[in-house]
């Protein structure tokens, strides 16, 4: 059963600590994305990657880092530089680079909170 | 600068009636539009999309209308069911090679039994 798996579902971060959110997909999708959702706001793009070993900053990349060493995996690290990390984080993927007009598929999200 | 706007944060509709959710956009380069449905603590689920070469797309109870001159799209749900209660996001993209999607802030639909 293909899909996108995000883990953990809930994560707590202490002040000054880096934490990494996992995102794995078995859809054989080329592109992967990280979004942040805050109450009353839409999904804001943090980082995205269209191919392995390449990624671009989205609209709110400060305080975050990513890697794309494998097609299936796109982990997001929330660093201590991100001063307001409490949010719901969503990972998404998109089928094939070069073919437009396709929907993104989403994982079930990780809720990050500060201790 | 919010390029995709959903001006109604919430909407309540009686079961069996029509739900109409609205979305406005500012970037005339957008050529692909989508609606997603989201339950609490879950990821958004793709519902329906429309390309800018069309003005209507229908899938069962869901119909999306696109008015390019007004830069407006709407989602109609007929008949509305209690299970439709969720947050609905519209999104837009354009064939620029970046494969970025711009999302609205969402409308919370409550269907009353």
What does this structure look like?
The complex is a heterodimer of chains A (115) and B (113). Chain A is mainly β and 115 residues long. Chain A has no helices and eleven strands. In chain A, strand 4 and strand 5 (43-51) form a beta hairpin. Chain B is an all-beta fold and 113 residues long. In chain B, strands 2, 4, 5, 9, 10 and 11 form a six-stranded mixed beta sheet that branches. Chain B has a five-stranded antiparallel beta sheet with strand order 1-3-8-7-6, with no helix packed on it. In chain B, a hairpin with a 4-residue loop joins strand 7 (62-67) and strand 8. The model of chain B has no long low-confidence stretch (mean pLDDT 94). Chain A binds chain B through residues 4, 6, 9, 31, 33, 35, 40-45, 48, 50, 56, 58, 88, 90, 92, 94, 97, 100-101, 103-109, 111, and chain B through 4, 6, 9, 31-32, 34, 36, 41-46, 49, 51, 89, 91, 93, 95, 98-101, 103-106.
Spatial gap, N to C terminus of chain A: 35 Å
Percent range of helical residues of chain A: under 10%
Structural class of chain B: mainly beta
Distance between the termini of chain B: 38 Å
Count of alpha/pi helices of chain B: 0
Strand content of chain A: over 45%
Give a quick precis of the structure.
By secondary structure, chain A is mostly beta strands. Chain A has strands spanning 4-7, 10-13, 19-25, 31-37, 43-51, 54-57, 64-66, 76-78, 87-94, 105-106, 110-114. Chain A is globular and about 40 Å long.
Task: Give the helix/strand layout.
The complex is a heterodimer of chains A (115) and B (113).
Chain A: E1 4-7, E2 10-13, E3 19-25, E4 31-37, E5 43-51, E6 54-57, E7 64-66, E8 76-78, E9 87-94, E10 105-106, E11 110-114
Parallel strand pairs in A: 2-11
Antiparallel strand pairs in A: 1-3, 3-8, 4-5, 4-9, 5-6, 7-8, 9-10, 9-11
Chain B: E1 4-5, E2 10-14, E3 19-25, E4 32-38, E5 45-51, E6 56-59, E7 62-67, E8 72-77, E9 86-93, E10 102-103, E11 107-112
